[in-house]
Every structure is written in structure tokens, then in C-alpha cells.
Specification:
Elements (H helix, E strand, L loop, with lengths): L1 H8 L3 H12 L4 H7 L1 H4 L4 H30 L5 H9 L3 H8 L9 H7 L3 H9 L5 H5 L11 H18 L1 H14 L1 E6 L15 E5 L5 H12 L3 E6 L2 H12 L7 H48 L9 E5 L6 E6 L5 E7 L8 H14 L4 E5 L4 H9 L8 E5 L4 H5 L2 H6 L5 H14 L1 H5 L18 H19 L1 E2 L5 H4 L6 H15 L16 H7 L3 E2 L17 H10 L4 H4 L3 H5 L13 H12 L29 E10 L2 E5 L6 E4 L20 E10 L4 E5 L5
Parallel strand pairs: 4-7, 7-8, 9-10, 13-15
Antiparallel strand pairs: 1-2, 1-3, 4-5, 5-6, 11-12, 11-14, 12-13, 14-15
Helix pairs in contact: 2-5, 8-11, 9-11, 11-15, 12-14, 13-15, 14-15, 15-22
């Protein structure tokens, strides 16, 4: 197993072995990547995830082999050679090809022919050596269900067709032909309705299956599922049949015509439909993986959005008829005040709204204003910009995707039982500016609105991948133990939902934590959980300064030695770059603490508890552009990347409708992966290429403007 995974992933065998042992012991991936580098030889989280997934696939493969061997053995058909073939199989499809002749079947044309005793005749015809097979077929007419020799031969050909379908070599060579030459074709169903013409490009479409991009596969499959398109997958039928004939037919065949009939029947009735099912599943799985990886990378970038930090914030959930819901949050995100203003139509109480905003900013010493970017967002931004405050206040448009889902959730009701949905939504917008990660972890990632075809992909795989991403980001950033919600604490390695709740309950009863070791006082938080979680937890005013760093408690003794060598206290050592620079990492290497660990400790001491998220970069849309009607072809505008897909990036220019920058318009040079060129929330300049108001489509370009 170790050799198999090591070879497959091109990784050091010892590192793979150590990683699997850690995973099997229950260690979390962020913990392994950060604190067990000596075991993994410094593998990152991606490599460790790949080892985990390959290990699981290997286990599933071995399970299937065991099942197939047991199934064939029960039929008393297992030979040493057959068993060895199954053991040596490298893929699930190889195993299934071997198993196919032995697989219990429902009644088929072949099984009916066998019941009528036609298998000996089938062997004669398949041997292609006996020209008198029609004469021999006459004796089978004695069976009450066989009228004549033609019927006997026909039944024998049904058996031969199944034999051909079940030959591993035939399936393997035909499968390779499909991989090289199969087309995926789509046509519009005659009576199908496609009101928005979503699938118009695919009404009469074909392309090489191996070249079809993942997003197109998912679009075609969705069109088929919605009853608009009819799909067909496969190579040229004549080419496939000819290849099988070249493999099966003998040059001196005495039954060439009949065996050729069986070959055609085998391919058309059995093999092609089997392979189409197989390749459809493979196409879907590969397209799912690509879409899930895109979604995961978008989510990672979104969760790593720059935080404003702990500042008193005024947050507005804009609206027209129902007004703008305004809340005041303290520096920790606690709700201090809420009310509604009506500056927009139909009420148009603009002056009163400005006075109220100015008064609230002054009264609560507000340091920033967060404005939701939904309905009436730009209008509210203009109102804030036109309001006189007693000092300079930064107003920021906040992406409110998913805020309404949070505000209607059980979690929001639990947090704010005495407030309605609108207040909860405003709170979410404000907190999303202050600390996007802490707020976004409260949402189902699928509701955040990034990615492509997320509702079409394998939901179990999607959920698992997104959980990996959230855990990775949370542990990468670190969690402040005394302010973190149970929603974010549950993603810390080794904690989980139940212990997270216990931590918050303990904090509410006993007050703020002053030491990481206090976690051990919580029921269910044992030594293993502490080992996993401690390094990712921060305590700002801890008794031991190291409790507010990424240095793991198991390594505190190393820092003690460093401080003693420099004749300083630990507090004097931290952030003393000159002193730390004088340390020689190799002086502190022991059997327990390797060079990877020592170097990480030194790097952390230089910049303790450094937030890996970048500083917030404020952004403003073009003031003269507020709706799609304001856009003109050729305009150059500032925008912000809101979503990245396999086929391009979507950009918000402040008109309540994102525009697409197709992958071909992202840069002057060729790009195969948009994620390599742009990032979520990146500020860019775009050129308007096309405005289609009827179909609500905007096309932008970033060529030569960035």
C-alpha cells in the first residue's frame, strides 16, 4: 500500500508511511502539516490530503477485491490464476471486467439460450473451425422452444455476444478507443422548452469527449436532466466494431458471417451501453472534482478576506420600501443599538436619515460603516458619502451573499432571540466587515455564492472538501479563545461541535481563559485533544506569552533554552528580531525536536501570532455608474472579482449585476486556469465589451487595462 501511494503521488515512501500512521491515529491535517513536519518531511496540507484520499481509495479497492474473490469462490469457480489476476488489478474497472462473467445476472438473452442447451453450439460457432455448424444446429430443434436451425444459431449468437462483451481484453481495448476517439454529442429535444435559451449553444453540439472542459460537461448534463437536451457519448460505431472484429475474427473463419453478427450485437446492445454508463460516471466524477476544487479555492480565498479588525462599526442592510436597517456593533461585534431609516423612495426621508446617521456615528464613536451590496446598496453608499460626520469615516460595501440565510437560521435566532430577521442581517453585514472568517463559518458554504454548478456535483464530496477548506483556514489564522464563537471553535483540530459548546459554556461560567492548560479542565477535552488543538488557539492576555503564539506547548521548553542562551526572559525574546537572528537553529535540534520544528519556532518568535490575512484594501465603484443601463461598450471601470470559474471570472462594477470576463479576456497571454491569474475580492480595471439588457448579461475584458 505504502509503495503504491508513494509511486502514485511521487512522494517519499517514509513520509507517506508516517503521514498515514498519523492519520490513522486520529491526527488532523492542519496539525500534521504544522507540528509533525519531521514525520512528513515537511509535506503541506494539499499533499497530506492527497495521501489521505489515496489511502481511502486503496482501502475501497481492496474491499472490492475481497468481495469479488469471495463471490467467485462461493460459485466454486475461483482458480489460483483468477485470484492472482484480481489481486494484481490496479483499478476498479479492471476488477469489474474480470468479475463480469461471474457476476450474478438477471435473465438475459444469453441465459435463456443457455437454459435451452445452446452453449455447445455457441462454442462450435465461436471456434470458427467447423463449417457444418448449421447441420449440427438441427439437433437442437428437438427442444420445444426452438423451431428451427436458424433459431438455434440465433440463440447461440446471443451467448457469443455476451462472451465477447465479457472478455477483459475486448473491454480494455474498446475502452481505450473510447478514451481516444469518443465524442459527446447533444441535440435539443423536439418538444423541449428552453425559455431563457440557456442551452441554445448545445442544440446541435459535438466535441471530443477527452477535450470537453468540466464546466461544459456539467452544463450538458444539467440540460439533459432538465429535459432540454438529448446526449449521446461514444466513438464512431463502425470503427469500434471493426476493432473488435480484428481481434475476434480469424482469417480462415468458417463462421465469419455469424460471429460478425454476434460482434455487432455485442457492441450495440451490451458493450457500448455499458461503456457509455461507465464514461458518463467518469466524466461526471471528473467534472465534479474540478468544480469542487474551484469552489474550494474560491471559499479559501473568501475566508481569507482581509478583516477590518476590532472597531466600533455601524452596519446598514439597505432597502427601498422597507427602509434601511441600521445597527451599531461594539469592537467585539456585540449589538448595541438598532433602528430603521427611510432615505429612499417611497418615503424619501433623506435629511432625517442623514441626521440620524451623523448622530449615531458621534454618539457611539463609530470607526467604520459597513453597507450591504444588495438592493439599494449603491444608493445607500451615496447617502453615507453625502452625510457630514465629525471626523473621517470609511464606508465599505460588503458582499452580503448568504446574510439572509444566516439571519433566518436557528443559530441567528439563538443568538438574537428578541430581534427580527432584518436586524440579524445587518449584524451579519457588520461582522462580515470586522472579521469575515468568524462570520462566514456560520453559513453553509454552498449558500455563499461562489463557484460553479455547486448544486449539480456530488454533495457528499463537496461537503467533505469544503469542511477541509474551512478547517484549514481557521487553523491557519488561529482562534482567539476568549472571543471565539462555538461555530468557529468547532473547526479547530481536535475540538468539534460538542467540545466547542463546552468551551463557551466554561468561559461563560468561569470567565476568560488565562492559560491554554485550562482547556484540560473541560469535560471531554483530554490529552489527545489538547495535543491537536493547543497550537491553533490564542489567548491574548495569557499568563504565559507563548499562549498567544503558534508555538505549541510541547515546544515551550525549546523557547526556554533559547531565552537562557541569550540571557533574556521569554517576553524580552519575543519580537526581538536582532536577538532571534543570532540564534543558530541547529543548536536546539534534539531527538524530539527536529530542524523543521526549530525553524518554525524561530519564525514565529519573530512575528508572533501574525494574521496571515492581508490588510484591508478599501475600494470604491465609479460614482456615475449605478445600473446596467448606465454601462456603455468601451467604458473602463473599476471592479472587484466576486466569483471565479473554470471559464472565467465574474466582476462587480456596482450595478447589482456581475459581468463575466471570459477566460480568453482575462489577459493578453493564454491562460488555462483563471485562479492562476486572478483572486477573489481582487480589485481590477475592466473594459465593457457587451451589454445585453434583455438577457441580463454583461461581458467585460481585462486585456490591456490591468
Amino acid at each position: 500500500m505504502i509503495s503504491h501511494i508513494s509511486k502514485k503521488l511521487n512522494l517519499d515512501r517514509k513520509a507517506v508511511k508516517g503521514t498515514i500512521e498519523l492519520l490513522e491515529s486520529g491526527a488532523g491535517i492542519p496539525f500534521i502539516a504544522r507540528y509533525r513536519k519531521e514525520v512528513t518531511n515537511g509535506l503541506d496540507e494539499v499533499a497530506i490530503e492527497n495521501i489521505r484520499d489515496s489511502h481511502q481509495q486503496y482501502i475501497e479497492l481492496e474491499k472490492r477485491k475481497k468481495f469479488v474473490i469471495e463471490s467467485i469462490n462461493k460459485q466454486d469457480l475461483l482458480t489460483d490464476g483468477l485470484k492472482q489476476k484480481i489481486i494484481e488489478a490496479k483499478t476498479i474497472s479492471d476488477i469489474e471486467d474480470i468479475y463480469l462473467p461471474y457476476k450474478p445476472k438477471r435473465k438475459t438473452k444469453s441465459s435463456i439460450a443457455k437454459e435451452r442447451g445452446l452453449e455447445p453450439l455457441a462454442k462450435i460457432i465461436m471456434s470458427q473451425k467447423n463449417p457444418d455448424f448449421y447441420f449440427k444446429a438441427e439437433k437442437y430443434t428437438q427442444h420445444p422452444d426452438i423451431e428451427d436451425a436458424d433459431m438455434a444459431v440465433s440463440g447461440a449468437l446471443d451467448i457469443i455476444a455476451e462472451w465477447i462483451n465479457e472478455r477483459p481484453a475486448v473491454r480494455h481495448s474498446t475502452r481505450r478507443l473510447w478514451q481516444r476517439q469518443a465524442l459527446i454529442q447533444s441535440k435539443k429535444k423536439t418538444k423541449a422548452e428552453d425559455e431563457e435559451l440557456k442551452y441554445k449553444p448545445y442544440y446541435n453540439w459535438d466535441e471530443r469527449m477527452s477535450k470537453a472542459p468540466s464546466h461544459r460537461i456539467l452544463a450538458l448534463l444539467r440540460g439533459e436532466k432538465e429535459g432540454v437536451l438529448r446526449l449521446k457519448i461514444g466513438p464512431d460505431e463502425d470503427v469500434a466494431i471493426k476493432q473488435i472484429e480484428n481481434y475476434i475474427l480469424r482469417d480462415d473463419s468458417a463462421s465469419r458471417h455469424e460471429v460478425s453478427i454476434a460482434i455487432k450485437d455485442s457492441y450495440r446492445r451490451l458493450l457500448s451501453s455499458s461503456l457509455e454508463t461507465e464514461f458518463r460516471a467518469e466524466l461526471k466524477s471528473n467534472a465534479d472534482d474540478k468544480a469542487i476544487n474551484i469552489f474550494a479555492e474560491n471559499l479559501r480565498q473568501l475566508l481569507m478576506t482581509s478583516p477590518l479588525g476590532q472597531k466600533v462599526c455601524l452596519a446598514i442592510d439597505p432597502g427601498f420600501r422597507t427602509g434601511c436597517k441600521v445597527v451599531i456593533l461594539d469592537a467585539q461585534g456585540k449589538l448595541l443599538h438598532n433602528e430603521t431609516i427611510y432615505p429612499h423612495p417611497p418615503q424619501r426621508e433623506t435629511t432625517m436619515a442623514k441626521k440620524k446617521l451623523s448622530s449615531l456615528v458621534n454618539m457611539y464613536k463609530v470607526e467604520a460603516i459597513a453597507i450591504g451590496n444588495g438592493t439599494a446598496g449603491r444608493e445607500t453608499e451615496k447617502l453615507v458619502q453625502a452625510t457630514q460626520f465629525d471626523r473621517k469615516i470609511q464606508a465599505v460595501m460588503v458582499n452580503e451573499n448568504g446574510a439572509s440565510i444566516y439571519s433566518a437560521s436557528a443559530l441567528a435566532r439563538e443568538e438574537f432571540p428578541n430581534y427580527d430577521i432584518t436586524v440579524r442581517g445587518s449584524v451579519s453585514i457588520g461582522r462580515r466587515l470586522m472579521d469575515p472568517l468568524a462570520e462566514l463559518v456560520k453559513l453553509d458554504p454552498k449558500s455563499i455564492g461562489v463557484g460553479q454548478y455547486q448544486h449539480d456535483v456530488d454533495q457528499k464530496k463537496l461537503q467533505a472538501k469544503l469542511a477541509d477548506v474551512v478547517a484549514s483556514v481557521v487553523n491557519n489564522v488561529g482562534v482567539e479563545l476568549n472571543t471565539a464563537s462555538k461555530e468557529i471553535l468547532q473547526y479547530v483540530v481536535g475540538i468539534g461541535p460538542n467540545v466547542a459548546k463546552k468551551i463557551v459554556d466554561y468561559r461563560n461560567v468561569n470567565g476568560a481563559f488565562v492559560s491554554r492548560k485550562q482547556l484540560m479542565e473541560i469535560s471531554g477535552f483530554g490529552a489527545k485533544a489538547f495535543e491537536q488543538a493547543a497550537g491553533f488557539i490564542r489567548i491574548r492576555d495569557a499568563k504565559n506569552t507563548l499562549d498567544n503564539t503558534a508555538v505549541h506547548p510541547e515546544s515551550y521548553s525549546v523557547v526556554d533554552k533559547m531565552a537562557k542562551q541569550l540571557k533574556k526572559s521569554i517576553d524580552e525574546l519575543i519580537e526581538n528580531k536582532e536577538a532571534i537572528k543570532s540564534l543558530n537553529a541547529e543548536d536546539f535540534v534534539t531527538v524530539k525536536f527536529g530542524l523543521f520544528t526549530i525553524k518554525d519556532i524561530i519564525a514565529e518568535l519573530q512575528k508572533p501570532n501574525r494574521d496571515p490575512r492581508s490588510k484591508i484594501d478599501f475600494f470604491e465603484f465609479e460614482k456615475s455608474v449605478n445600473s446596467p443601463q448606465d454601462l456603455e461598450e468601451g467604458m473602463i471601470l473599476p471592479g472587484i472579482i466576486t466569483n471565479i470559474t473554470a471559464f472565467g471570472a465574474f466582476v462587480d462594477v456596482g450595478v447589482h449585476q456581475d459581468g463575466l470576463v471570459h477566460i480568453s479576456e482575462l489577459a493578453n497571454e493564454f491562460i488555462s486556469n483563471p485562479h492562476e491569474y486572478v483572486k477573489l475580492n481582487q480589485k481590477v480595471q475592466i473594459k465593457v465589451l457587451k451589454v445585453d439588457l434583455q438577457r441580463k448579461r454583461l461581458q467585460f475584458s481585462m486585456k490591456s487595462v490591468n
